[in-house]
Design goal:
By secondary structure, the chain is α+β, with helices and mostly antiparallel strands. It folds into 2 domains: 48 residues, no CATH class; 124 residues, Homing endonucleases (Endonuclease I-creI). The strands form 2 sheets. Strands 4-5-7-6 form a 4-stranded antiparallel sheet. The protein has a 3-stranded antiparallel sheet with strand order 1-2-3. A hairpin with a 2-residue loop joins strand 4 and strand 5. Helix 4 runs antiparallel to helix 5 and helix 5 runs antiparallel to helix 6. The longest helix has 18 residues. The two termini are 26 Å apart.
């Protein structure tokens, strides 16, 4: 679980118009969140349970998300799967549920992790082409993502467009997608 750091508070939490700023440390990145509070109960709920904004979702994706493409060929059958993921420790499942509500699509599922020094987690996932095109991509298009994540996103969009046009069904289209996919996650 990320280390939580309470940075600033103003006003009496028992009264209206107080605010609360907190940060979460995960690895080398720190996320700061400002929450407007109406009572102590709101503070106890935690800032991540308040309404998500596009900026928050973009920052979360930059740190914990992935635009991923799977390419499978079984005999003459060709299949391309495009997925948007955000993976968090099991203690953060509620945040992923809020993300699902924010986008209005996708699913949250449990993922057991057997690797050393890794814990079980939950993953928010969208793999439906129509939902990716209409609900996920518009949130990130033209927005500030880290250089690496932005490159993956741009390639992801190109591949998604090729899949929508059924280019992957031809040998030339299949190879083009394969080359693009090879440039992702580097």
């Amino acid at each position: 679980m990320p280390e939580r750091v309470d940075l600033l508070t103003q006003g009496d939490p028992d009264k209206e118009r107080s605010w609360y700023l907190s940060g979460s440390q995960r690895g080398n990145s720190t996320l700061f969140i400002l929450t407007l509070c109406m009572s102590k109960d709101k503070i106890r709920e935690g800032p991540h349970l308040s309404m998500l904004t596009e900026d928050y979702v973009i920052g979360l994706t930059d740190g914990e998300g992935s635009f991923t493409v799977f390419q499978r060929k079984i005999g003459k059958y060709r299949k391309i799967e495009c997925h948007f993921y955000v993976k968090m420790r099991k203690e953060e499942k509620e945040l992923l549920e809020r993300l699902k509500k924010f986008f209005g699509c996708g699913r949250v599922s449990f993922q057991k992790d057997k690797r050393r020094n890794h814990s079980d987690c939950y993953r928010y996932e969208v793999g439906n082409i129509k939902e990716l095109r209409q609900k996920i991509i518009p949130v990130f298009k033209g927005r500030l993502l880290s250089k690496k994540r932005k490159k993956d996103f741009e390639i992801f969009c190109k591949i998604l467009k090729l899949v929508e046009s059924k280019a992957h069904l031809s040998e030339e289209g299949w190879e083009r997608i394969k080359k693009l996919k090879g440039k992702m996650h580097r």
